[in-house]
Amino acid sequence: MDGAAASAVSQSHPLGVAQGETIVAIATAIAPQQGSVGIVRLSGAEALAIARALFYAPGRQPWESHRILYGHVRDPQTQQLVDEALLLLMVAPRSYTREDVVEFHCHGGLMAVQQVLQLCVAQGARLAEPGEFTLRAFLNGRLDLTQAEGVADLVAAQSALAAKTALAGVQGKLRTPLRQLRSACLDVLAEVEARIDFEDDLPPLDEPAVQAQVAAVLAEVEQILATAASGELLRTGLKVAIVGRPNVGKSSLLNAWSRCDRAIVTDLPGTTRDVVESQLVVGGIPIQVLDTAGIRDASDPVEQMGIARSHQVAQAADLVLLTLDATAGWTDADQQLYESVQATCLILVVNKVDLVPADVVNQLRLPDNLPIVHTAAAQQRGIDSLEQAILRAIHADQLTSGNLEFTVNQRQEAALIQARNALNQVQQTIENQLPLDFWTIDLRSAIAALGSITGDEITESMLDEIFSRFCIGK
After folding, report:
1. What is the pLDDT of residue 256?
2. Among 21, 90, 95, residue whose Cα is nearest residue 51
3. How many whole angstroms separate alpha carbon 174 and alpha carbon 149?
4. What is the pTM (predicted TM-score) of this model?
């Protein structure tokens, strides 16, 4: 975001107007009896003054930027000791927000950080809104909007690969190509507008060159758009439902896959009465695995409720593992269940293959055109094959190849689609030999769409929508 754009947004946005206020928030997750350190963060013009009012640093420790002081937090009214803590000072502009920032590093848990937070508010600080620290970093030009959203993605990352691509966003690896594309569009627009304003003083416009420039930008936009599906997988993960008749080994499969006893396993049909969940990471993709109750005709009301939930989970899942017993083969009940599952992505899991000769397993009559995996869940066999089948089913080649440098989120994808449509319209306008004024309309639309991704062109409502999804304290 350039300085003029940042200034304009800062003046129009409520939080921008209030940038003179000092804000405070707890910057770490807090829970009783968990976490050794809790951080209270201040940002704003009065941050240092509030720190001096609350923090006593014994000896001759210098209150200088980027130093850590040791001491105690005290209530200035009663002089009552609140906590033994460390104080981190970061003077503007060398801070996350480019304002004066102070952090109290307190003992973890609930009480210490809550008391320090209340003391900061009593000294005049205001409780921060969700994402307000990062918003200030954006408004002050330290981050562009892709970097700010990368920060949110990094905090929410559920796998190492998700964290890697989010960090690429924080480092500006998405910003750089987008700004280059916007700059290229601006160059074309300048050429076209110059011919409109000074037609008699300039040589004719080189239309083939303009077409080539637009085509090059369009091709790059398509390449960036191609990362959207991978980005969605990394951010939201995959919901996988294990579905099948009773006693086919669904719970054993969940336990083998999770490498722990998540579900109770017995020889009694109907043991699983409710959905059992496990969180896994496969090929860098977060996966929520749901073990469902065995589906059959049941008279027990509790089991009936579990079966109804199994149907609901199967319909809502991104991928269904339809599990069958190799010792029983493909039964009429399996066929009915297969016909009732309307999943767009389905894998057949033939379990208990250790109990049946290999030639019998290979001769089982199964539905055509479906991926099939053989497992012996009780022996923890076939799990690797299952994971590879899942990655193939969701077309995760780009993720597992290691060539994915960054991804775009849903907001960015929508803006890129707008840019693509506008650039396609520019090409159509040129081919139809329409006047140059028509070229500029769609060029400006493409420039605005690309600028909305980086924050070079942004509105107050867009900022509210983006930063409201951040956690408080970030």
Report:
1. 87
2. 90
3. 11
4. 0.79
For residue 402, give the DSSP letter. Answer: T
Tokens of 163: 């964290």
CA distance to 187, 216, 350, per residue, from 222 (Å): 20, 10, 40
Per-residue confidence (pLDDT) for residue 304, from 0 to 100 = 47
Report pLDDT digits (tens) over 146-178: 999 999 999 888 888 889 999 999 999 999 999
Half-sphere exposure of 195 (CA within 13 A, CB side): 17
Q: Is 27 exposed, middle or buried (0-12, 13-18, 19+ CB in 10 A)?
A: buried
Let me know: does 87 contact 98? Beta carbons within 8 Å: no
Region at 380 (left for phi over 0; alpha for psi -120 to 50; beta for the rest): left
CB 26 within 8 A of CB 155: no
pLDDT score for 343: 61
> How many whole angstroms from its chain centre is CA 272?
33
pLDDT at 22: 96
Question: Please, how many CA atoms are within 13 Å of residue 80, restricted to the half-sphere of its CB?
Answer: 8
d(CA 363, CA 23) in angstroms, rounded, equals 69
The maximal CA–CA distance of the chain, rounded, in angstroms, is 90
Q: pLDDT tens for residues 23-66?
A: 999 998 877 667 789 999 999 999 999 999 999 999 999 999 99
In whole angstroms, give the CA distance from residue 278 to residue 82: 40
Distance of CA 335 to the CA centre of its chain: 38
Q: What tens digit of pLDDT does each residue of 219-271 get?
A: 999 999 999 988 888 888 888 888 888 888 888 888 888 876 544 344 444 44
Are the C-beta atoms of residues 294 and 267 closer than 8 Å to each other?
no
Q: 7 versus 373: which is more confidently predicted?
A: 373
CB neighbourhood size of 87 (10 A): 24
**Which pair of tokens denotes residue 254?**
């969940």
Tell me the C-alpha distance between 217 and 189, whole Å.
Answer: 13
Q: Work out the angle at residue 439's Cα, subtended by the Cα atoms of residues 438 and 444, and round it to the nearest 5 degrees.
A: 105
DSSP 157-185: --SHHHHHHHHHHHTTTTHHHHHHHHHHH
47 sits in the region (left: phi over 0; alpha: psi -120 to 50; else beta) called alpha
